[in-house]
């Protein structure tokens, strides 16, 4: 009986074997080669977290050039270039931030670095001048005359205008905070004596290890936003620095903490239109240049691109032609091996 059962089982197994397939199932066959992948348009703002190194100046004395009795005083904690500060013997003293401190009276025909600095500052303030010239000419005189009139000083007689040093007070930035101000109404001041002190303050912020961009960027520090010009890694605008230094976040840090660096965010001022493609779709990479390829009626066509950024297995690229419209698929895989990049 047992023998009969064994024989029956063997026969059944043999019969089943006759019905087994003679090849592997299709699911175990060779994998299909992926030849294309989706591409999508994406705006790139280039947001980066950066660390800024501050530059802080020491206290600086402000030296007056006028001597006499202070008949009025407009200094109210800060001074701005081009504005009156105090009045000596009924003549206003105007604050000026020039690249070179003024040290002498000037008249038509005078030349020098101080004249160049005066011309450029008059131009920046919106007055007539000979910008980028180191000569005091008619335009310089007319700009100076109008600056004096705007600040309450009589323009003087005759066509030739002379800049009197006593009418000026040099300041180290466009706008400065001032302490220990002594030119109070009714006091007597002496030319060459200090009338106030500019407290040591923030004069520059530099991106640690930063690389300049060929495009304007926007930088935000403690909620204060300003433009970081193309080619620069420094924040030097006096008003921006004053606003940053006035924030609670800045003031709450010790000198050591500030020296360790200040966190900031940098983005492109104008976001770039890019294509997001798989990293494997970019070939013939040379620095920030490379190519992608698209299929046009069965023919592979290379498109030169600038590599803008890379993230999570994807690359953000911008075609050299500038256009991203119409590119929804890119070639990947072995087809790229036979392509050139022009």
Report on the architecture of this protein.
The chain has 342 residues and is an alpha+beta fold. The chain folds into three domains: 74 residues, conserved putative lor/sdh protein from methanococcus maripaludis s2 fold (Beta Barrel); 79 residues, no CATH class; 139 residues, no CATH class. The chain has six helices and 23 strands. The strands form six sheets. It has a six-stranded antiparallel sheet with strand order 2-18-22-21-20-19, with no helix packed on it. The chain has a six-stranded antiparallel sheet with strand order 15-14-17-3-13-16. A five-stranded mixed sheet has the order 9-8-7-5-11, with no helix packed on it. Strand 7 and strand 8 form a beta hairpin. Helix 2 crosses helix 3. The longest helix has 17 residues. The N and C termini lie far apart (83 Å). It comes from Bifidobacterium cuniculi. Keywords: Signal. This is Peptidoglycan-binding domain 1 protein.
């Amino acid at each position: 009986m047992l023998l009969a059962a064994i024989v029956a089982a063997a026969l059944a197994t043999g019969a089943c074997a006759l019905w087994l397939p003679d090849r592997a199932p299709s699911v175990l066959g060779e994998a299909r080669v992926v030849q294309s992948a989706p591409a999508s348009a994406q705006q790139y703002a280039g947001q980066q977290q950066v660390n800024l190194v501050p530059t802080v100046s020491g206290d600086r004395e402000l030296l007056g050039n006028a001597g006499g009795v202070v008949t009025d005083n407009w200094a109210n904690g800060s001074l701005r270039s081009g504005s009156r500060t105090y009045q000596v013997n009924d003549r206003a003293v105007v604050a000026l931030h020039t690249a070179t401190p003024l040290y002498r009276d000037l008249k038509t025909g005078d030349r020098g670095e101080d004249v160049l600095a005066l011309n450029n500052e008059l131009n920046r303030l919106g007055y007539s001048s000979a910008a980028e010239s180191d000569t005091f000419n008619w335009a310089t005189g007319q700009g100076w005359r109008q600056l004096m009139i705007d600040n309450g000083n009589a323009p003087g007689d005759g066509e030739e205008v002379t800049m009197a040093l006593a009418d000026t007070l040099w300041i180290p930035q466009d706008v400065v905070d001032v302490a220990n101000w002594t030119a109070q109404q009714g006091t007597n001041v002496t030319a060459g004596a200090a009338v106030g002190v500019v407290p040591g303050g923030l004069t520059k912020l530099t991106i640690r290890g930063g690389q300049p961009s060929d495009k304007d960027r926007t930088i935000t520090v403690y909620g204060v936003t300003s433009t970081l010009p193309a080619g620069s890694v420094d924040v030097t605008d006096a008003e921006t620095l004053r606003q940053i230094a006035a924030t609670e976040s800045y003031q709450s840090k010790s000198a050591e903490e500030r020296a360790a660096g200040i966190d900031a965010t940098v983005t492109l001022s104008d976001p770039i239109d890019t294509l997001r493609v798989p990293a494997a779709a970019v070939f013939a990479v040379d620095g920030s240049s490379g190519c992608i390829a698209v299929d046009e009626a069965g023919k592979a066509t290379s498109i030169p691109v600038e590599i803008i950024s890379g993230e999570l297995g994807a690359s953000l690229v911008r075609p050299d032609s500038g256009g991203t419209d119409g590119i929804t698929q890119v070639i990947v895989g072995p087809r790229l091996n036979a392509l050139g990049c022009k």
